[in-house]
Task: inverse folding
C-alpha cells in the first residue's frame, strides 16, 4: 500500500504604511514565515498570524519595519 499527500502552504506579508516591501526584506520574511509555520504545524495548526520586524539597512527605522502576515496550509491525499 502507498499513500501520497500534497501540502500547499500559502503565506502573505504586508505593512499598510508602506507602498512596497523592500526586496532586501523578502528573504528574511520568507525565513521568518517558514520558521513560524513549521512550529505551528507541529502544534497541529493549519493557519495563523505572522509578525516580524525587519531592520537590515541604516535607512530602516531603528525599531525595524513592522510586517504582519497570515498563513494557511491545505493538504490533500492524492
Result:
Amino acid at each position: 500500500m502507498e499513500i501520497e499527500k500534497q501540502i500547499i502552504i500559502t503565506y502573505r506579508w504586508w505593512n499598510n504604511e508602506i507602498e512596497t516591501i523592500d526586496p532586501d526584506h523578502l528573504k528574511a520574511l520568507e525565513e521568518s514565515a517558514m520558521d513560524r509555520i513549521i512550529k505551528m504545524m507541529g502544534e497541529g495548526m493549519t493557519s495563523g498570524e505572522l509578525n516580524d520586524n525587519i531592520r537590515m539597512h541604516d535607512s530602516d527605522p531603528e525599531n525595524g519595519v513592522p510586517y504582519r502576515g497570515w498563513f494557511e496550509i491545505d493538504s490533500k491525499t492524492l
Observations:
- The longest strand covers residues 65-77.
- Residues 58 and 64 are 10 Å apart (CA to CA).
- The chain has one domain: 5-77.
